[in-house]
Amino acid sequence: MRIIFTLIIFIGINTICFSQVKYDFESGSARMENVVQVSNIQRDELYNKSRIWLAQNLKSSDNQVFLEDTNKENLIATGNLLLDRKGLLSDRVLNFKLSLAFKDGRYKYVIDKIVFSEKFTNIDGKVSYYTYDLDQHYAKMHSKNKDKKGNKFEEIDAELITLMTNLEKTLNNTMPAKSQDW
């Protein structure tokens, strides 16, 4: 019982502390953004740790960082997350653009250009591919004055929140790196 209670509290805190994908009317895009405080860490260190984190965590065929700022204030990268298989759904991939901006003691992230794709194989072996552009989905949802997201989009929120939690933990890690003397 305590474990369940702890999980509920943890999930609730994560949901409150982190943004969810929302529709931005000005830009016309579905996006997740937040400013995260990280104590006693300078902009350059945040930039350098984030750059390493991007290379280790964003699984992309191009592993592309679009913008590397010589002032170490911004990083823009593309990536994708491979989601778990669900029943007859496989090859589930979440593609997105991640923009990071850095200042001493804080950073801002913006995730946009979000596209989700998956493959459905029915019992007869017939294969169908589905792609969901979240910009279009959220625009349609808001045009119908609907605020409730479907399970698929709640799962996308959860995956992106987990990713951003991982980034925050990495940036807050003040442990010195293991010796490079090998």
Structure description:
Residues 34-116 form the DUF4468 domain. It comes from Adhaeribacter terrigena. This is DUF4468 domain-containing protein. It holds the Pfam family DUF4468. InterPro entries: DUF4468. By secondary structure, the chain is an alpha+beta fold. It has one domain (26-169): Alpha-D-Glucose-1,6-Bisphosphate, Chain A, domain 4. The protein is 35% helix and 35% strand. The chain contains 4 helices and 7 strands. It has helices at 2-17, 43-57, 134-143, 151-172; strands at residues 22-24, 29-37, 65-68, 74-83, 89-103, 106-121, 127-133. Strands 1, 2, 3, 4, 5, 6 and 7 form a 7-stranded antiparallel beta sheet that branches. Helix 2 packs across helix 4 (151-172). It starts with a helix and ends in a 10-residue tail after the last helix.
Helix content: 25-40%
Instruction: Report the uncertain regions.
Output: 1-17
* SSE order: HEEHEEEEEHH
What oligomerization state is this entry in? single chain
- What structural class results from the helix and strand content? alpha+beta
**Strand count, sense and closure of the main sheet?**
7 strands, antiparallel
